[in-house]
Amino acid sequence: MIDIYNELTSIVDKDFVSNKPEELYIYGRDPGLMPAHEPEYVVMPSTVEEVQAIVRLANREKIAIVPKGGGLSLTGLVIPQKGGILLDMKKMDRIIEINEKGSYALIEGGTTHGALKSHLLKNYPHLRHSIPDSPPIATVVANAVIHGQGRLTQQRGFNSDMVCGLEVVLPTGEVCKIGTSAVSDYWFSKGAPLPDLSSLFFGWCGTTGIITKMAVKLYPCKKLRDVMLFLTDRAELVPDIMLKLGRTEMIEDLVVTAQPIPLRYAGNYYILFYITGDSEEELEYKRKYCWHTLWEYFEKRDGGFVSLVPEMKAPLLSMPSKDTTRFADVSKGGGFEYSGPIAPIEKYAVYVKKLEELAVKYNLYYSSAARMIDGGHSMMFSFSYTFNRADAQTMKRAKQALDEAAEYALDNGGVMWKPNLDEQKITIRKMDPNTLELMTRIKKLLDPNGIMNPGNWEVL
Amino acid sequence: MYELIFDREKCARCKSIPCMTKCQYIKLDTVTAKKEWQKVLDGEDSFILEACTTCYACNEYCPHGNNPFYMIVDRQEKKGILPSPRPIITMWVNQCEPVGKFTVGLLQEKALSYCFLAHFNVLAHGKLFEDLEYSAVYGQEFFCNAVYLHYAKTSLIKERLPKIIENIRKQGIKELVCLHDECYATYTSLAPAYGIEVPFHPIHYYDYLIEKLKALKDKVKPLGLKVAYQRNCSTRLIPEVDKSLDELFNLIGVERAVRKYDRKNALCCAEIIRMAKGPELADELQKKNLDDMQSVKPDYVVFNCPACWDSLATKVAERGMKPIHVIDLCRLAVGEEQSLNLEKMEAEV
Ligand SMILES: Cc1cc2nc3c(=O)[nH]c(=O)nc-3n(C[C@H](O)[C@H](O)[C@H](O)COP(=O)(O)OP(=O)(O)OC[C@H]3O[C@@H](n4cnc5c(N)ncnc54)[C@H](O)[C@@H]3O)c2cc1C
Ligand code: SF4
Ligand code: SF4
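Structure tokens for the assembled complex are given below, as produced in the milestone run.
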């Protein structure tokens, strides 16, 4: 019998290979609600060659391999369902190039959002990328792999839409360039004018290959930024308010929050949005324009802007926002998971009603953040419930609430985002059979031995 | 249930109706004022109820102490008129609800009230507060609730205020030094107007500081400064404290610049007005006020109310003037430093 551990230490420095129970324990779980399952080995490669060699070994021995970034996707996507090798990407964290004129950053497979943000702030303060509100150790690649959304999503679409090139180690071990970098020295497009192969790797939750490099688009970072807060107590008005603001083409990010605590949130929907400008005049113009865009709600007394004092503004302007993380610990014990369908924004009111109903039914704290995507083409609506990890009963109730929320969302126009295994199953059940067949063929073609993050998108 | 004590006879005898004719926002001649005010008193519809910006000033303009503003609020609520959008009112109602979270220090019979304003945690220290520094109450449980006058919520005041007063009494407090002007207005004007009993002695912090400065006479160095004073809405309910402020300024060698928008003609900070009536009016008021402050070339712009500070201090600083709270000005006079400063809020990107 071959000794996988020794083989792995011949590829990667032994300090970065482990089969120690205490490490396997940690790598066998995430902060969410999916049951734990431990890997047999954890490896931290630092080069693409090392990744290749590990994948070849896994392929030869038909061992599962699960790539992991910050492990913050919360839905069990990095829990190794079939054991095997957990590939922790954290050491591949270089920022290889900032192409200022081409407006993109070329990074490695484990570079974090926090690192890219501080690098830009320090060296290219006029440029920015779309940062999500997850803790800053979330990785840029994994976030795109799961079609994450960030601060520029309202204007520019999913974070995966802002990718402009990949380098991937295929499940069979070949290194492959995706996009213009396959032909040119420049990483300016992930597809066009070539056939767009990048979609073979986004939304697949690490089941089709390991991304070792990625180029992400950078956008102008205006000198000034401000936040505005509009409240309404009528959920049915929220979609039109979102649309009206989006259609001004003046706002950056837009998030609608619904939660009963702290008390100041109770009874209202908090529509938070950002404006940017290179001068105070530009900002003031946008402020006023947005005010007047919502004037009819204000006049009818159905909605109003809150005057934000400086201490209220500072946390709202911080990126990523710390509020979600804070909410994650409301029940103490640090348990947090949300079910986040991507859905038509017209569903806001019915979703929020369901969110509240489920909180009552399962006796849980709830919160929801709905982020507008691409000017209103869709939204991510999170059904979030907190739980104490030390309290099995609450965890069970939270899982039941999320399962019910997912079923409800799927029956009401939504499509699950970063779905956990149960959500993947119900999604597959609902899927057009020909689409499912196409996915099956693609998966078989790319990963004939089914080694990549098995259990997920189990369409074979 | 508590009801507003209001003498309609006084209004019947009143010739010039100054409460309405002096209003800075609703322009009325005496005849119309009389007619419209009568409608208000009779519980009929009057455009006054919709147009009111809730600046509190009519209470000060009434020479007979008849509290016309409380009458307006009472009528607004009865008629379901919303001075601000409903969600804004809901937010205020919820965020100040007493939920059993509060801070009390090492209380003595005399204590400071921080109301529900964290600013005082920074301000109330040093020589001027030596004996009372730790004898303080803070939180929703001690929040004076007068803000609901802006939101046509007299019923909430009637429901919550007696409980707040009871919370203070239960702490064994006999003398309450109100650091928030509005608390003093609540205990000496609003509560009596509704027949709500106040079983402790409220002291305005201006009067407290006057006593302290007199006691520290040897340590007080006259500042020789000229200041523009930002007079806030709640002073309209207790205009007598203006005299205390003049005495206080006198004690520390500060000249209160004569300017257009001070005293009875003061302009409020306008942020409540922004949420109620929109940005144009609020911006116009703030511009007029700031222009006027600037025109007297003050060494400092002095704030009494922390809410005015939050609304205007940054804008004052942006115009090259220096904002300071009254307490800090007094602290300068006894050789201490300004404690409440503008946080440098960098927009993190
Ligand atoms: C408080 C909080 C707030 C959040 N807010 C947001 C938000 O605003 N927007 C948002 O989008 N998300 C948000 N999230 C969810 C999540 O944290 C982010 O999407 C995060 O970017 C995921 O990145 P990660 O590195 O943690 O991914 P992981 O959980 O490590 O991985 C996610 C998936 O990517 C795969 N993967 C990892 N690396 C690679 C690779 N190199 N190649 C191929 N596949 C790979 C994994 O196998 C897995 O399937 C939030 C989470 C929390 C806890
Ligand atoms: S409230 Fe005062 S000023 Fe107004 S009419 Fe009555 S007495 Fe006159
Ligand atoms: S509160 Fe102000 S705006 Fe309203 S009527 Fe009285 S003076 Fe006029």
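The first strand of chain B starts at residue 102 and ends at 104. Strands of chain B lie at 102-104, 110-113, 136-139, 175-178, 201-204, 225-230, 254-256, 300-303, 323-325. Further analysis is deferred to the final report.
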